[in-house]
Amino acid sequence: MQSNAKLQPLLSPDSIAIIGASRNPGKLGHVLVANLIRAGYKGKLYPVNPAGGEILGLPVISSIEQLPSEPDLAIIALPREQVLGTMHQLAAARVRAISIISAGFRETGRDGFELEMAMAELARRKNILLLGPNSLGLINTDCGLDATIAQASPAKGSIAFFSQSGALCSAILDWADGESFGFSKFLSLGNKAGLSEADVLEALGDDTNTKVIIGYLESVDDGEKFLRKARMVTEKKPVIMIKAGTTQAGARATSSHTGSMAGAVEASTAAFQQAGIIQVNDLESLFDLARAFSEQPLPQGPNLTVVTNSGGPGILAADACESVGLHLARPAQKTLDILTEALPPFASIYNPIDIIGDASAERYRTTLNAVADDEYTDAILVLLTPTASAEIEETAQALIDMAKKCAKPIFACFMGEQRIGTGRDMLLAAGIPCYNYPEPAVRAIEAMHAHYRWQNRPYPVEVCFRRDKGKAERIITKARAVGLKELPFHDAMEMAMAYELPVPENRFVRTSDQAVRAAKKLGYPVALKIVSPHIANRGDVGGVALDIHAPHELRQAWFSITTRAQRKRPDAYLTGCLVQTMGPTKAREVVVRFTQDPQFGPLISFSLAGPAAEMLGDISYRLAPLTLQDAQEIVREIQSIPLLRGARGAEPVSLTAIEDILLSMSQMATDFPEIQEAELNPILVDAEGALVTDLRLTIG
Amino acid sequence: MQSNAKLQPLLSPDSIAIIGASRNPGKLGHVLVANLIRAGYKGKLYPVNPAGGEILGLPVISSIEQLPSEPDLAIIALPREQVLGTMHQLAAARVRAISIISAGFRETGRDGFELEMAMAELARRKNILLLGPNSLGLINTDCGLDATIAQASPAKGSIAFFSQSGALCSAILDWADGESFGFSKFLSLGNKAGLSEADVLEALGDDTNTKVIIGYLESVDDGEKFLRKARMVTEKKPVIMIKAGTTQAGARATSSHTGSMAGAVEASTAAFQQAGIIQVNDLESLFDLARAFSEQPLPQGPNLTVVTNSGGPGILAADACESVGLHLARPAQKTLDILTEALPPFASIYNPIDIIGDASAERYRTTLNAVADDEYTDAILVLLTPTASAEIEETAQALIDMAKKCAKPIFACFMGEQRIGTGRDMLLAAGIPCYNYPEPAVRAIEAMHAHYRWQNRPYPVEVCFRRDKGKAERIITKARAVGLKELPFHDAMEMAMAYELPVPENRFVRTSDQAVRAAKKLGYPVALKIVSPHIANRGDVGGVALDIHAPHELRQAWFSITTRAQRKRPDAYLTGCLVQTMGPTKAREVVVRFTQDPQFGPLISFSLAGPAAEMLGDISYRLAPLTLQDAQEIVREIQSIPLLRGARGAEPVSLTAIEDILLSMSQMATDFPEIQEAELNPILVDAEGALVTDLRLTIG
């Protein structure tokens, strides 16, 4: 506990009052006192209960007023009706932190919600750190503090855990108990009326006894703050999180559970990604990764070498390796020479290095020494199956010896249970992650390498744009004044120009005669597009005609697109049409959008135009404001990027032109949170540049 | 062992000779005898060794000639040089089955391969069942037979396991030893010189003591036979398999390991799917599913009800549910009424049913009874976290009691380790699968429901086509006679017509004058396409002009497509051009292909035309011959199917027309294995029908 001074009264209190302490072992107020004593808390403990007497050898204080000193931390385990009153008393007694175990607040409906708001307000006004309510409590193994109502205390370790679900905390404590899995801090956030995930993350980031932070979240309260804090923490240490409620079904379950709003999955995924948080989808991965990160250095490259005494598991490791995007290292010639010399003739010296079924510990040792020195190997995975001649404990020892002198990360997979048990325990005790199967080991290595890349990414470049914000403001104000939800096309184009987006010249016209005159001024070829406040997507109703070369074609086009649109949408009022200069004819079409996410703010997306990209989910996302790198990544992340890079003989298009548009839109989304949604669809892009031929802006 | 009579001498031998039996406990020949005795084999055992004497109390026979009777099974554990000679002697002694533990054959190179071929040939000629070589042996717990060199014997159970990797066998036996996981049969296939996976699968399918078959394969020898046998077996019981070597890296590792050719992943995936085999990607899932399938009935619908004492895990279960495509059941009003009555006010009666942290075993019992009777619930998942008031063993008992009277499948997830240990053991002992986390439980339920759908699928309809096979044969023969690798366009079109594929009228022309004359005969509009034996994809070189309406346009098109193609591919010889009637103008474009897979035969694929489908992997596959259902599924399986069904205001196209083309191509691929590859690209399809406007046929 050094620099996380802010949470000191909560995490390392000098004294603790337990409000609602009880002599009855079945009560939470008793469990709290018992846990504090059992874990060996060294500060002062004040059980508080009007009945007085003694609990587990401690004298009971009969009321908060009677406390002999001002406790740093008070823990409340009272019926919910008494909580707010008690908080007032504690505030008067100048308590600095309160942890509320009591439940029955926000999660139970309107009354509970209002009560909780009052508690939060009180804590804020009195500057009291508030954990919960509806929390299981907290643990700090550095100072022997177990202020939970859980049944088990974890061992000391370097992993910090925080969770929005209390029940999950108890499951994890029970699990850790049997798995030699140690924690530095353990925090049950409960309803987060006071301390949020961002506060806790920041404190754990500063905690020198914490090497890895893992967390379970159902909702994020202040997305922007969370992102900012998380980004700083992940510079220093890995943060691995599971976000529950990422599907429709899960989100429904979330809101019925905590009353919290689940935001768009895409937004939270983008947030985690941009903050360098490692997101996992299931609890097993959370702990697999936590162990790996806490015990081994990060692989500095993607090249994995697999050493195995059996072919099958080696193949499974190779499959897993390619599936997650790691490479099997190609060992240096020197390494191959050593292996050829040292290994029996039927062994495979290529990676996976199969030292075959009769491999002794000595053969493992020789192979591992060669691999440890191999310049093309960034990480090592050692597989062992309990063959008749396997020397299991001796092999474990060989790994342990090598790990001591090797700077590269080392992982083990000893397959089986009974015979390999001792070997596995030796490895775990020595800090070598040991898995039952090759696949989770490979997934852990990949996550660690990704984190290495994150920590060594180029310094983010903030981009500031020339823009006419005053003009933009006038456009928005005007639209709001008349209660428009969608900006008229003309105004949208003006907005685009205020943000220096490349737009075609265009004229709004009400008759085909006007259209012909407009086209003459713009110069052929032109495009003709219907305009209607009721039709969002012109393409869907056939309301677009392209590449018109002459007046008679233009008149024909007018007739056909307006009748087609009117037939498809008889309810829609057609204001007129737009005549536009044509964009480059051999351009590819892409789409840029943003929406305002309630938790994380503006979410920018990029994809190719057309329904296929959407249907196949080939869309990439980032939260605004975008850095230059974000803009570069969002373009290159779509799976179909080869189509823009010139696959199949097509000319490559200017990705920079797209990046510029993304950055402008990021600026617009940040400048005007009142723009609920923007869609630039399509943007024509070729080798020379880009052209936004259509855009829609919706205001809230 | 009833109807798997074919393998009886191997699986249930009356007497066994151990060739290479040894008194030295470090030798495999000793381990074999020791394992046979330990497992309690009831038949006659004849250890054979020229040294004579006694091994573990059994008299040693000094040579094969001296055997007192003809043993059903002989096990060979000798150096590889002696194996073939020994097999000759055993054949003379009329042994009916041989299991070869010895290694050093196909997996070691050319000499070993030839030796193995000779052994296989001998076994075939003498009608001897041959397991291995390079096998760990086999186990049949029904008759106390452990003929392996493994260190552990498994408990009796209803799961049969076969594996191409021997080392994996030892790992699994060691693992099962600690996990109360029982096996009926256990077979290490080794190099599969004699018995193949298809033979073993058939035998296990007939075995009445086996409820579930699980397997690990690196290669399939005779794909067609495997498919045929597997399809019969999966009608009766679930087959769950892991196929290793499914990535490039894995495939390279496979071929260096066993010397076997890894086929296209798409082909083996299609084969597993068409045979109703459940394919998993990692070992953990293999055993998770095996346990679920062996212990619970199949869910008859996709509706899962989750009962939990904590919100967080409930949300994770809901997320997992939607991710795999299951539904959270909507309980009937009657169920809701019962729950409202019985549960405390803060409980959530909707699914996941959250009976909250202080739930007693009695509350679980009440809830489970209501859910068991709920008509909209097909499967039940019960989550428990060890909260302070959780009654863990009593809750386990409540589940067990309910499972006895409830016909629906029930799964448990007791989270934690220490405190929930006894409860979990109770559940496992009672045949209720119990997982550590919600996600694997949900995945198991999904796999079981998918298998239910497989077993209840409509009866497959075989389709036979009118076709002019004689004409097709003449075309192929002519092309082969002159050594052509790709059929000239004209011949390809003739083939198409022989298979009654819908093709446009077309003329091959050598000059633009000829083109104009041809277009006049066909009638405008026409398409013009270059023809060159050197250019596979005309589109890539700009060699296609569409929708030509007049002679002057045609001449212009001729000039531009030929010069464009010549500029892009100066090396290519242009034979001429094709003039074609235009297809429907508002059609969508799709692609049908087939290739001959070395292991599984013709592999048919379907996708939308254009590079996006390929890049995003939105292609579906089936092996020929296709049934009518296969053809229907392959079309509907692509993710972008809504585009063909009329998403976004487009007209739906005729899927039946595509199915007809798929079925014709399946017939062609089956009729002519010498056609290595076929590509119909694009096929124009609209509401009325389809038109194959281009096709390429490559012959081998």
From TrEMBL, chains A, B:
SMART domains: CoA_binding. It holds the Pfam family CoA_binding_2. It comes from the Bacteria. GO terms for molecular function: acetate-CoA ligase (ADP-forming) activity; ATP binding; metal ion binding. Keywords: ATP-binding, Ligase, Nucleotide-binding. Residues 493-539 form the ATP-grasp domain. In the N-terminal section; belongs to the acetate CoA ligase alpha subunit family. This is CoA-binding domain protein. It comes from Pseudodesulfovibrio piezophilus (strain DSM 21447 / JCM 15486 / C1TLV30).
